[in-house]
Each structure stands twice: as C-alpha cells, then as structure tokens.
Design a protein that fits this description.
Blueprint lengths: L1 E13 L3 H12 L4 E5 L10 E4 L1 H9 L3 H11 L5 E5 L6 E6 L15 E4 H14 L3 E4 L1 E8 L4 E7 L5 E11 L6 H6 L3 E16 L3 H4 L4 E7 L3 E7 L5 E9 L16 H12 L7 E15 L3 E2 L2 E3 L5 E2 L6 H21 L10 H25 L14 H5 L37 E4 L2 E4 L8 E5 L4 H11 L7 E5 L5 H5 L6 E4 L5 E5 L6 H12 L3
C-alpha cells in the first residue's frame, strides 16, 4: 500500500552511509537541507576501517570536523605507520611497500592521512549534517523513481513493514553502494572487467598484541601457501580484520573464491594462517563477502538523479581509494546543486559533475586494479593494467576539464604531480601557509563556501574590482584576498600582480598570470562562464 506524498525536500539521498552522509554534510555547508534514506538501522554492524587520504581530510577540515575525526582515529588506531608485505604477522617482512603512511605529506597539505572505522566516523558526519537541517530515515529503502521537469518523486519502502510512501525532491543522489537500486532503476550499466575475485573480510578478536603493538605498521599484507590478503589491526592489537583474496594453491580456479567457505571454523583457521600462530584463540565477530571488480558506470547522471560512490564506480580495496573517491564525488556535486537551487548558477552546471568526476573515477579504478594485480593477485598474471601512478597524483593531482573550468590549453591531463600543478586551472588549489589576522593558516582554509580570488601583493586592484563584479550576482558568496607570502606566487604560477579564482570545492577555476586591463570585467566574465549563467 502506497500513501500520498508526505514530504518535499531539496535533495534526497538513497543511502545514508559514508558517501550519503558526507554529501549531506557538504550540502549543509551551503545551507541546503536534505533527507537520506538508509536501509540499515544504527549504521554498520561491523567496525569496517577505512583509510582516509589527505584530500578527504581537507574536505573534513573545511566542514569543521577534522579535529573530531582525528581524535576518533587516535582512539582506534596508531596514527602513523608503514605498509609492508609479510609471510605472517608473527613471521618476517618480505617487502616494504610504503615506509610511512604520511611520508612527504607536510609539503602538500595541512592534513595527514589516517584510519578510522566507519562506525566511528559516520556519527560525526551525521551530527554535522543534522546541525544544518539534514535528516536520516533509517530502516527504509528507495524502490521507485519518477522524474519530471521540476523534480523527482521517489517511492520509499519500510524494510520491516513493507509500507510504502513517496517523497518529492528537486534532486536525488544514489549513494546506495555496489548493488545500487537507483542505478538499477535508471538502467545504467557498468563498463569494466567484471568479477575477478570473490573475497572476504573477516572481523575478529585475537590476542595479537605481542606481534604488532610497538611496531609502526598500518597495513600488513600477508602472503604464504595458505592465503594472501592483508591485516588491519586496532590500536590494542587484540582486534581487527583480515581481508582474504586467495586461499591455497592459486593455480586452482577456486583459490580466488574464499567466499565459497565461510564456516566459522574455516574463518578461524584463516586468521591463524595469516597470523602464523597455529593455536591462536580467535573469536569471529563477522564476515563480509565482496567481489573484487574494477567497473565504472556508463553515466553518472540521468536527468535530476546522480550516482556517487560505489553506485558509480567499483574498485579493489588496495590503496583505500573507494571511500575517498565517493566522498570526493559528493564534494564536487554538493556546491553545484546548492548554487543551482539558489538560482545563482544555471542548471547546466550540474552536467559538469559527470564530465569532471567520471574520468577521475575511471583513473582511480584503474590504479586500484594495478595495485591489486601487482600486490594481492600476482597469480592472475594480468597484463591489462596501467603503470603505477604515485599516490599523491591520485589523491591530490587529478585535473578537471569541463565548462566550469577555464582551461589555459587543450592538453588533456588526467592527473599530475600536485607539486607541479602550480595553480593550473582544473587542479586543486595548492596549500601554502600564510598569515591571516595574526594566525597561521593554510590557503586551503580560505575555501569551502563560496568563490575566492587570491592575488599577490601587487594585485590590489583585483580585490576592489572583483568584489564589485561579484555583487552583480545577488547572493553569491565571494571573497578576495591579497596573500602575503614569499611562496604564494610561485606555487600558484602567477606574477606579482596576477590572480586566481578558486571554486567552492577548492579547485582553480581560472588564472591570470598578470593583471588585465579591466579586472572587474574579467572577473564578471569568469563568474558568468563558470556558473553557466
């Protein structure tokens, strides 16, 4: 039985997990309320741990939750550490993959990478979003979508009772995971390699402190005749999870399907094999089956409906790119929806979500696949993988090309070393420490809500002219700063009187290396172009 429409909201999410809550939080930064429909009650039942990259922490910093996330991480995990390959936890190191989780990050960002469980993170995201009017309806799922010229009508079903109702929204975001119902309803297919492993994640308690506590290890890959996979251990060394990619002789096809046998006694054996302790006392807390894939949705948008996170792209866990990429999807989309809803940008701005995020999603999927077949599944003998890109290029170096970016040339750059982007339009605006009102802040701390013009000390005319130009768009959040820093001009690739305009998501929209003859007209034209008015 379906009841009449009972709500009308600006933005509706199918999925109130990591990506849905993050995007709701980013929308709330721009004053837009939303409702998330989440099938689960109380969040994830197992303490899934995720690796969060610098760029993601920068987004959390902008949203005002970085300190809380870092405090939660410190309760759960050691903050720094290496990524290594061992034969077993109690055995020997076979290879060092990454010497330190945060090696070299200080030069690029005010933020550091960290691990935190999703049950630890999601309440922080939810509380921040709810402060600005977002809400979550648990125990429900989206089962139908109907679009028209003015909005989307979603049919919502109560999982327990089966009762249905409808919610009307201007826009719908499908953040409902790998088996996305929204993607299914839109009939959007994946392109990629399909399933190449049926893996499992085993959540467990076991006394392993003597093997890991006191050692700076963040991720421990294990490879021995019994299995291959990786451990992520909690701070106390007595609980964690083991991802199992293969079991036994990898010349046998069934070796790539650990999910075929999830009997408790077998799971206990796998933890013991990985630990290298035959009589280890093990308590199994849960097991998750998952399929290793490297797929990208053919479209990220269908009318007023968007796909984000695993609904849009699926990748192996190597590198921890999946959750981060989904959060970055939401960050890209949130400000665009907000400005369109406020009438400050043309509706065509929303088409740049796919043109910007789909290439990034595809590149990241390929890099995760490269790491999978060269670290976890060498037995596949795969040859169809891209050369390994530096992690910094993937986390911070991706380049957007779309009508919302005024590019300086027609050279396609999927990604580059962020230390060399120098404020190139389409790149993430570089981090530079500056003084603001007597406080040391990052240039990144100036971004997050509206458009920002930055200029060198010789460009004071930009500030006056740009503020006047921005007032022509009533209600547009715009600010301008003269940056007093010896490093700023070089890091942003401009001269002493040049300027850049940075979008609300922290990406450079436009750059002038020197001042123009009419800076006010220049800024007005840039804003009209980028906002697609």
């Amino acid at each position: 039985m379906t009841r009449d429409v009972v709500e009308d909201v600006p933005v509706l999410f199918s999925g109130g997990g990591l990506v849905g809550l993050s995007t709701a939080m980013f929308l709330a930064q721009h004053g837009i309320s939303s409702v998330a429909i989440e099938r689960l009650r109380g969040g994830s039942p197992v303490p899934r741990a995720a690796f969060f990259h610098m760029r993601t922490l920068e987004m959390f910093r902008s949203a005002g939750i970085e300190d809380r996330v870092r405090e939660q991480s410190a309760k759960e995990f050691e903050p720094e550490g290496a990524i290594v390959l061992m034969d077993t936890l109690a055995g020997k190191v076979l290879a060092g993959l990454i010497p330190s989780l945060n090696e070299g990050v200080e030069a690029l960002s005010p933020c550091r990478r960290l691990f935190v469980t999703q049950p630890g993170l999601e309440p922080i995201l939810r509380a921040r979003a709810e402060q600005a009017g977002a809400s979550v309806i648990e125990g429900n799922e989206v089962v139908g979508i109907a679009q028209d010229a003015d909005g989307v009508t979603a049919t919502i079903r109560d999982v327990a009772s089966g009762e249905e109702r409808q919610i009307r929204a201007k826009y719908l975001v499908g953040a409902d995971g790998a088996h996305s119902k929204v993607r299914e309803l839109l009939d959007i297919e994946f392109d990629g390699r399909g399933v190449f492993s049926n893996a499992i994640t085993i959540y467990f308690h076991a006394p392993l402190a003597q093997y890991v506590v006191g050692k700076a290890l963040s991720v421990i890959y294990v490879k021995n005749p019994e299995l291959s996979g990786f451990f992520r251990m909690d701070k106390d060394g007595n609980s964690g999870f083991l991802v199992v990619n293969t079991v036994g002789d990898t010349s046998r096809p069934e070796a790539a399907s650990p999910a075929n046998d999830v009997r408790p006694e077998h799971l206990i054996d796998l933890v013991r094999f990985g630990a290298g302790v035959p009589d280890l006392p093990v308590t199994i807390d849960g097991v998750a089956r998952w399929r290793a894939t490297s797929d990208v949705a053919r479209r990220f948008q269908e009318g007023r409906v968007f796909l984000a996170g695993d609904a849009a792209h699926l990748m192996p866990p190597n590198g921890g790119f999946g959750g981060n990429t989904g959060i970055h999807d939401g960050h890209n989309l949130a400000w665009k929806i907000a400005l369109v809803l406020k009438g400050l940008a043309g509706p065509q701005l929303l088409t740049t979500y796919e043109s910007e995020r789909r290439p990034v999603g595809k590149f990241t999927v390929e890099q995760a696949y490269t790491r999978y077949v060269t670290r976890s599944a060498t037995y596949l003998g795969a040859k169809d993988f891209q050369p390994l890109a530096n992690d910094f290029n993937i986390e911070l170096g991706y380049i957007y090309r779309s009508p919302a970016i005024i590019a300086e040339d027609d050279v396609e750059r999927g990604s580059e070393d962020p230390r060399e982007s120098q404020g190139r339009p389409g790149s993430r605006a570089p981090h530079v420490w500056i003084d603001k009102d007597g406080h040391r802040v990052s240039t990144l701390d100036l971004f997050g809500r509206g458009f920002v013009l930055l200029t060198s000390p010789g460009g004071s005319n930009w500030v006056t002219a740009s503020r006047a130009a921005s007032r022509q768009i009533t209600g547009l959040d715009f600010d301008a700063h003269i940056v007093q820093s010896d490093k700023f001009a070089a890091e942003y690739g401009i001269g002493d009187n040049g300027a850049v305009i940075v979008r609300p998501d922290g990406f450079v929209a436009w750059r002038a290396k020197e001042i123009t003859s009419d800076p006010g007209r220049t800024v007005a034209d840039v804003l009209a172009t980028v906002l697609m008015r």
